[in-house]
Design brief:
alpha/beta, Rossmann fold, 3 domains, 7-stranded mixed β-sheet, 15 helices, 28 strands, globular
């Protein structure tokens, strides 16, 4: 079990690595810049000075609407030195979704790139927004702030130039300080801001990486930095003074050329990515790559075949934004279906709907709590009722259906909550339903996840039209795009029904919608990604 002290929190850890391994490369962008540990620490301090000069201090929140770049990491570390709180924003957010995070976070400052500035200005905000200052990250010499904005818009160089604070005045974060408010899609309501401590990130980094990882390893990451996966890996790499290569987004044609070019020895592969790679025609040089390890979620069905084909070792982890990394499999697997065992700093149970523990082998909900302080989430930002509900009876309720065997191995079965997992994103079914309900002619609707041929899920929206009305599916998709719904929240399937299945108390039975049983009164099913885009009659 890792001992969480201030010395291993990421800002202080980078400072230590700068002193011990200052010239060693910490971060490198594909086709971009690189940065040593010493340069990373210096850049973080420069950002801290600039933020301090405009009045930011401990517990102030700063929105970060940024791609996974070196400067994004520097900004996060700089906020950490002030003990201020980063609020990373999903870069797919537009319109209402973006406005919601701006308002709900009550942040006074935002940092965004020139490319995202228009989206911020066009998102609008209600009376609840506290945003006053926008710092634009722009490395060109031609940036001119809009003259008619209601915000104070400044170039990032101007911010940094204002910094005069002495380095010694920055104490850096404590394990219990909130590092980020990271928005994750709700399962029965709107997105919630998860308050993640610096200790949580340190422990997540320690548990994310394989124990065999060393200072010679190079991590290839295309993970966004508005999810815990990418930020945990920043910790993992720094803990062993290794190197991390940043790619802005996953691209199948680029994976192996990038890995070979940058001599990457470890990477992360979502289930969909594994399927994409596996389905490529085998090549004689598949195993001729520098990878030693790959983390996949979940493990592919034929783990041995994948390992043999590409000459590497696979493992998986289980966790969430709220609890960090709770389980990890060993390379010597007992089987290919387990998520692993809980780490010793956590306790877990499989419980029924009333929180009573179930016998080994029975499927129930996984609940978790920590034996050590501050290594799991501190709750949801300004949502005490949601926090109390998720942590009822002093256990965090994962919403995941699992079973456990007599040896303590856990097995994921299904999601209990109504969240949908699509291409690495968690989607709130309620938020999708709210967007779709705004389209003319819809009486009621329900969003569900259905199995995808590429792993994880695809999004299906089930619609009951108003009497005498019909729904034109392409027009619905166009409407959602015009509403600036994130791409991953635009449904693939549109199913038209005469009625939605409900309980005697009027609750929609989403399990029946997922299973598409014969008792459903389905009128048609439309697939947005089919070659003809045609409507199929039931």
């Amino acid at each position: 079990m890792v001992s969480i002290s201030s010395e291993i929190l990421l800002p202080q850890l980078i400072r230590k690595q700068a002193a011990d391994n200052g010239g060693k490369c910490y971060l490198e962008e594909v086709d971009g810049l690189s940065q040593t540990y010493e340069e990373a620490h210096s850049a973080a301090i420069a950002w801290a000075r600039g933020f301090s000069a405009i009045g930011l201090s401990a517990e102030d929140r700063v929105l970060m609407f940024l791609p996974p770049k070196i400067e994004t990491v520097n900004i996060w570390l700089g906020l950490g030195w002030l003990r201020a709180i980063a609020v990373p924003v999903n870069t797919e957010y537009r319109g209402q979704m973006l406005s919601y995070v701006i308002e709900n976070s009550r942040a006074t400052v935002m940092v965004c790139t020139t490319g995202y500035l228009h989206e911020v200005l066009s998102a609008g905000s209600g009376g609840g927004s506290a945003l006053k200052t926008i710092v634009v990250l722009d490395n060109s010499d031609g940036f001119v702030p809009p003259a008619d904005s209601k915000y104070d818009i400044m170039h990032h160089r101007d911010l940094i130039d204002r910094g005069t604070t002495n380095d010694d005045e920055f104490q850096g974060p404590n394990p219990w300080d909130i590092s980020t408010v990271m928005y994750t899609s709700g399962t029965s309501g709107v997105s919630k801001g998860v308050m993640i401590t610096w200790a949580n990130f340190a422990n997540g980094g320690y548990r994310m990486r394989p124990e065999e990882m060393t200072s010679e390893d190079v991590m290839y990451s295309y993970l966004p930095l508005y999810h815990v996966g990418g930020t945990f890996w920043l910790n993992s790499v720094a803990q062993v003074s290794a190197k991390m290569v940043l790619k802005e987004r996953f691209s199948l044609p680029d994976v192996w050329p990038d890995i070979r070019r940058y001599q990457c020895t470890i990477t992360f592969l979502l289930g969909a990515a594994v399927n994409f790679i596996t389905r490529q025609e085998a090549r004689p040089d598949d195993a001729d790559n520098p990878l030693r390890f790959a983390q996949t979620q979940p493990l592919p069905e034929d783990v041995d075949a994948f390992e043999n084909r590409f000459g590497l070792k696979l493992y998986t982890v289980y966790g969430s934004t709220e609890i960090g990394v709770a389980m990890r499999t060993d390379f010597k697997r007992i089987n290919n279906t387990t998520c692993g065992r809980l780490f010793p700093e956590l306790e877990g149970r499989i419980v029924d709907e009333n929180d009573y523990e179930l016998p080994h082998g029975q499927v129930g909900e996984l609940v978790v709590r920590s034996k050590e302080p501050w290594i799991i989430s501190a709750g949801y930002f300004e949502m005490p009722e949601a926090t109390t509900g998720a942590w009822r009876n002093l256990w965090y309720h994962s919403g995941d259906g699992m079973r456990r065997d007599e040896d303590g191995n856990f097995y994921f079965v299904d999601r209990i909550k109504d969240s949908i997992r699509r291409r690495g994103e968690n989607i709130s079914s309620l938020e999708v339903e709210q967007f779709v309900s705004g389209f003319d002619g819809i009486l009621e609707c329900a969003a569900v996840g259905v199995p995808s041929e590429f792993g994880e899920e695809d999004l299906k929206i089930c619609i009951v039209p108003k009497p005498g009305r019909t729904i034109d599916e392409p027009s619905l998709v166009s409407y959602l795009v015009d509403q600036k719904v994130p791409r991953f929240m635009v449904p693939r399937y549109v199913e038209i029904l005469s009625e939605l299945p409900k309980t005697v108390t009027g609750k929609i039975q989403k399990r029946k919608l997922r299973d598409a049983g014969e008792e459903l009164k389905v009128l048609s099913l439309w697939d947005r990604e089919s070659s003809q885009g045609e409507r199929r009659k039931a």
